[in-house]
Amino acid sequence: MVALNKYLYYMRYIIASIFLLICCSSCYYDHANLVYPKTSCNITGITYSTSVTTILSQNCYSCHAGTASSGGGIKLDTYTTLMVYVSNGQLISSINHTGTVPAMPLAASQLSACDISTIQTWINNGSLNN
């Protein structure tokens, strides 16, 4: 009987140790930066035709293109119409959620930091129609 109790004690100890080891090792992937590593933001070689229009088409054109009736009459789907809001600072102010203009996209989360940096870099580089 004593041997059986001793055996059960050691078995409980081994099972508890294995359980603890499994629990501790499973926490490795609880860190978001390990599961979803940050991707780098490449802001070199930015052009209007590829970089800027891609961001605008994904986030803005549903309201601010064509007749733009749902976008308060603000059109951003051509270089000429976009430049009005680049020149007066309203584009960057609205996507940065700063200033007196409404924050855009309306009723949605702010653009990613990379998208904002891309547009800001394009503006800082002279807002070329390239």
Characterization of this structure:
The structure is a single chain. The protein is mainly α and 130 residues long. It has two domains: 2-35; 48-124, no CATH class. The protein has six helices and no strands.
Catalogue the unreliable spans: none
| Number of DSSP helical runs | 6
Q: State the end-to-end distance.
A: 87 Å
The helix/strand order is HHHHHH
Q: What count of domains describes the coordinates?
A: 2
Q: Which structural class is indicated by helix and strand composition?
A: mainly alpha
Percentage of residues in strands: under 5%
Mean pLDDT: 84
Please provide the count of β strands. Answer: 0
Which word captures the global form?
elongated
| Cα-atom radius of gyration | 27 Å
In short:
With 130 residues, the chain is mostly helical. The protein has six helices and no strands.
Write the layout of secondary structure elements.
Elements lengths: L1 H25 L5 H4 L12 H12 L19 H9 L2 H7 L16 H12 L6
Helix pairs in contact: 3-6
